[in-house]
């Protein structure tokens, strides 16, 4: 079942950045993989999507949303699924460490790329 608790509230101001995304009106198949896509085909499709993201005026908002919402699929904010998963998992490890007495911030951008 889809978890929607991490999604932003359904308020227009929270979602307005999406209106300026360069992916708007583009074929979503560039940003989301088909079933069983692997290897070179997947890498080539993701690079094409990331090239679009690289010129997008709302890249930062998009990336922030994808990390906060823990979007499991697609290229968002110039990041693929594996890159987001690494950042989210690292944030979880930091939170666990913090709860056991160590401190850190939530989503570090030190491992992000544009
Ligand atoms: S950063 Fe990429 S996925 Fe996000 S709105 Fe822009 S073009 Fe779309």
From TrEMBL:
Binds 1 [4Fe-4S] cluster per subunit. Following nitrosylation of the [4Fe-4S] cluster binds 1 [4Fe-8(NO)] cluster per subunit. Pfam families: Whib. GO terms for biological process: cell redox homeostasis; negative regulation of DNA-templated transcription. GO terms for cellular component: cytoplasm. It comes from the Bacteria. Residues 100-114 have a biased composition (Low complexity). It is found in: Cytoplasm. The Fe-S cluster can be nitrosylated by nitric oxide (NO). InterPro entries: 4FE4S_WBL (IPR034768), Whib (IPR003482). Keywords: 4Fe-4S, Cytoplasm, Disulfide bond, DNA-binding, Iron, Iron-sulfur, Metal-binding, Transcription, Transcription regulation. GO terms for molecular function: 4 iron, 4 sulfur cluster binding; dinitrosyl-iron complex binding; DNA binding; metal ion binding; protein-disulfide reductase [NAD(P)H] activity. Residues 22-86 form the 4Fe-4S Wbl-type domain. Acts as a transcriptional regulator. Probably redox-responsive. The apo- but not holo-form probably binds DNA. PANTHER family: TRANSCRIPTIONAL REGULATOR WHID, TRANSCRIPTIONAL REGULATOR WHID-RELATED. Belongs to the WhiB family. This is Transcriptional regulator WhiB. The lineage of its organism: Bacteria, Bacillati, Actinomycetota, Actinomycetes, Pseudonocardiales.
């Amino acid at each position: 079942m889809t978890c929607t608790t991490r999604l932003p509230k359904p308020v227009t101001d929270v979602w307005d950045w999406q209106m300026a995304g360069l992916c708007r009106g583009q074929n979503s198949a560039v940003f989301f993989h088909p079933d069983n896509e692997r290897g070179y085909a997947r890498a080539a499709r993701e690079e094409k999507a990331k090239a679009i993201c690289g010129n997008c005026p709302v890249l930062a908002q998009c990336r922030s949303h994808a990390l906060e919402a823990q979007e499991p699929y697609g290229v968002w904010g110039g990041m693929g699924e594996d890159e987001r998963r690494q950042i989210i998992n690292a944030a979880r490890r930091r939170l666990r460490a913090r709860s056991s007495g160590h401190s850190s911030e939530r989503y570090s951008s030190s491992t992000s790329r544009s």
